[in-house]
Design a protein that fits this description.
The complex is a heterodimer of chains A (about 425) and B (about 325). Chain A has about 425 residues and is of the alpha/beta class. Chain A contains 14 helices and 17 strands. Chain A has a 6-stranded mixed beta sheet, sandwiched between helices. In chain A, helix 1 packs across helix 3 and helix 3 packs across helix 7. Chain B is mainly α. In chain B, helix 12 packs antiparallel against helix 13. In chain B, about 60% of the residues lie in helices and about 0% in strands. Chain B is globular. Classes of the chains: A alpha/beta (about 425), B mainly alpha (about 325). Chains A and B meet through strand 15, strand 16, helix 13 and helix 14 of A and helix 1, helix 12 and helix 14 of B.
């Protein structure tokens, strides 16, 4: 065996990251533009009509397909328009424009009488919780779990700017544990493991103290190396020793949820509140009041800019929905956030400092850090010379677009970008490119 | 504000470490060897280094403009090539040969192979190897150090005869013995090399593995009394730290790099068995290992075709 297993890259903390471990609630807006695309793959159909009055928690969108999820009104008010606009992912989808009536009336989900697998699954399905990979959480629990399954709750912020998961866990530890226990009933496990990264020492300490106080033996903690990336595949590698995709995880009974999802399930099951807001890291040197805010679904990026304040000393900005490594850069502030966006970053030139690429020096750093076990520089060479077939043989399809190769490249090559483009071209051509 | 947002693909941040930073660290790492060269060999060493560096830079800029129509001013690798080339020359070499060495290093090893990052052979090593073939006294009479008060040619000449007592070990370690001007001081090479490993310009295991394999081979072939003098003498440490890990001419996969380093260490130790190639033997070993790099990468690259690729296709 010659491939290194402990791959990934250590990314240093950033200046723009909020340091305070406390969340704040964003001021209520006059209107909300709720997007029917709640993640890259999860699209809903509008379930309300223009002129209809809605309460906070009223259903406004139903799943379009098996990856779609339920969407709820973030505010009480009136539906004034249903328009097609670009989502943060750049796709033209329906948006529901709701004007708030400032009366703060809410509509709760029906109370659960008995907590069992069926009722919890139904609540998970209808509450609009999105999982780590952008799929609605319930999709992986529909099939009956195998015996000796394992459940992991990840409280890791695997991005240099993010701290929402950690803040959520520290502030709602008890709720997260109760939410995790609900998840455990779905997969029939007795012990739930909370995952932390090695840079979350204080969170682990607080959690262990909590466990000691409550004498809770149903949950425990596991600390894994703080390397980037820690997507589902890498977390699975850490907990099971194998790189597994969705199918592989199901076959081996490995379930991974986020701490935020546990908190959301707790709210949906015990407080009967569907997902209408989520904790987001609002970060970057372009913002003045950086912090973790509870942001309602459909809040426009412009409203976030206005509320958090823009650093006027700078003139060039980059706005990103998501983390600095995999987030999507926004062209304008017109789009609105959804419930799978973990962060909104507003970077200045000192952070993203666009540098001109220079020729590859074949240092091999990209090979060392690649979690997919490919040679990015070699694939890039093939793509630049149009040898798509050789790129395929070099394993272009295994790329997870984590961007670790581009991050470490001293020549500032656009490796991840070219490989992602090349992979899409090959996929579109049915592998005949 | 709408027009002020910059849109680009991921990742949005990059490590604050560029090729230019790496090259600047390399220049800093070479400074102890440069200072030793000037201290032990005097003004002539300084002139030699200045000519070599200037020639490499001018040739690189000139030929880049002629061949490719452009020159990237951030590329200061030619300055490093010039410094390394100068440090690997004997003090008595003529100016014409220095210019020839610079021409070979830049035009043949770099420009003809495609410019920055494309050289498959270590540029300076090719220049030195060619000059050693042209000049009969490259490793002997031209190496004689007269500055320190006594005339000493390369200690490798004594070692090849099995004589490890004539040249004191301290002189080999500090660098006041004879040899190629910048490579005689083992101390300077180690200081520069450790700096490069700490700053992560090069992978530490390349020089470490080459040294281990060299020492083991010397222990097997020449015995315990030989390994310290052999390790400190000649250009082995200098080449291990500054030339062997050169990115473009070394492999890219860690396991290939490990084999590459070990092969180099063994070959370098074996060439010490005779003095036929003199001080230049080590550079020929390096060039041979450079040629092996693509083979090693192709071989071990078979394991780098993606984990779980079958699931995706």
């Amino acid at each position: 065996m010659v491939t290194k297993e402990n791959v990934g890259v250590f990314i240093t903390e950033r200046k723009g990251k909020p340091l305070e471990f406390a969340s704040a609630v964003m001021k209520e807006q006059d209107s909300y533009l709720v997007c029917m695309q709640q993640s890259q793959i999860s699209i809903a159909e509008v379930a309300v009509s223009i002129g209809e009055t809605v309460l906070e928690g009223t259903l406004i969108g139903r799943p379009r397909d098996r990856f779609g999820c339920f969407v709820y009104s973030p505010v009480s008010g009136k539906v004034v328009d249903i328009i097609q606009r670009l989502s943060i992912y750049g796709e033209l989808v329906d948006h529901v424009l709701i004007v708030a009536d400032k009366q703060n009336k809410s509509s709760d989900l029906p109370k659960i009488k008995e907590f069992n697998r069926k009722t919890i699954l139904e609540r998970l399905m209808t509450s609009g919780i999105i999982g780590i990979n952008g799929q609605p959480s319930y999709t992986k629990y529909i099939r009956k779990p195998i015996e000796k399954s394992r459940l992991f709750i990840s409280c890791i912020d695997n991005d240099p700017y993010l701290s929402a998961e950690e803040v959520n866990f520290r502030e709602n530890m008890e709720d997260c544990v109760k939410g995790a226990e609900l998840f455990s009933k779905l997969v029939n496990v007795e012990v739930v493991t909370f995952l932390f990264s090695s840079n979350q020492k204080s969170a682990v300490k607080a959690f262990k103290k909590y466990l000691k106080q409550t004498r809770n033996r149903l949950v425990n903690a596991k600390v894994i190396d703080n390397v980037y990336p820690l997507s589902l595949v890498e977390i699975t590698k850490n907990v099971s020793g194998k790189h597994l995709d969705d199918k592989g995880r199901y076959e081996r009974g490995i379930y991974i949820e986020s701490g935020l999802a546990a908190k959301q399930l707790y709210d949906a099951a015990y407080n009967n509140k569907p997902v209408t807001a989520r904790l987001m890291t609002i970060s970057g040197t372009g913002f003045i009041r950086k912090a973790n805010y509870l942001v309602k679904n459909g809040t426009s990026l412009k409203a976030i800019l206005d509320f958090v304040g823009v650093n006027n000393k700078e003139s060039t900005f980059k706005m990103i929905c998501g983390g600095a490594m995999t987030g999507i850069a926004q062209e304008s502030e017109e789009a609105s956030v959804n419930m799978s966006v973990p962060a909104v970053l507003f970077m200045t030139k000192m952070e993203f400092s666009p540098e001109k690429e220079s020729p590859c020096i074949s240092c091999g750093r990209c090979v060392d850090v690649c979690p997919a076990g490919i040679m990015p520089y070699r694939i890039e060479e093939c793509l630049l010379s149009g040898d798509y077939d050789i790129a395929r043989r070099f394993g272009i399809h295994a790329c997870t677009s984590c961007g670790a190769c581009s991050y470490v490249c001293p020549a500032k090559r656009y490796l991840a970008q070219r490989i992602t483009d090349g992979r899409e071209k090959i996929s579109k051509s049915g592998g005949n490119k | 504000m709408k027009n002020m947002f910059i849109v680009s693909s991921t990742p949005h941040i990059k490590r604050n470490f560029s090729v230019l930073t790496q090259n600047l660290f390399m220049i800093i790492a070479l400074l102890p060897s440069v200072m030793c060269a000037i201290f032990f060999y005097g003004l002539s060493a300084f002139v030699l280094l200045a000519i070599s560096t200037a020639c490499c830079y001018v040739f690189d800029m000139g030929f880049s403009y002629i061949v490719y129509g452009k020159y990237d001013h951030r590329d200061i690798s030619s300055i490093i090539t010039g410094m390394v080339l100068g440090l690997c020359m004997p003090v008595g070499i003529g100016v014409g040969y220095v210019v020839l060495g610079a021409f070979v290093s830049i035009f043949i090893a770099k420009i003809l192979f495609g410019g920055e990052g494309k050289a498959i052979l270590c540029e300076a090593a090719l220049g030195v190897a060619l000059l050693s073939g042209l000049l009969a006294g490259f490793s002997t009479t031209l190496c004689v150090n007269t500055v320190m008060g006594e005339a000493i040619s390369s200690p490798l000449e004594f070692f090849a005869k099995g004589d490890y007592t004539t040249v004191p070990i301290l002189s080999l370690f500090l660098g006041y013995g004879g040899g190629l001007i910048g490579t005689t001081s083992a101390l300077a090479a180690v200081v520069g090399g450790v700096f490069l490993c700490i700053t992560m310009v090069y992978d530490f295991y390349i020089p470490v593995l080459s040294i281990i394999s060299f020492v083991v081979t010397i222990l097997i072939t020449k015995g315990a009394a030989a390994f310290i003098p052999e390790l400190f003498a000649g250009s082995f440490l200098f080449v291990s730290f500054f030339m062997l890990p050169t990115h473009s001419s070394s492999p890219t996969i860690w396991i290939s790099k490990a084999f590459y380093a070990m092969i180099f260490g063994v070959l370098a130790a074996l060439t010490r068995g005779s003095y036929i190639m003199g001080e230049a033997g080590i550079f020929l070993c390096l060039l041979l290992c450079n040629l092996l790099s693509p083979v090693l990468d192709a071989l071990f690259g078979l394991f780098y075709r993606g984990r779980g690729i079958k699931k995706y296709e």
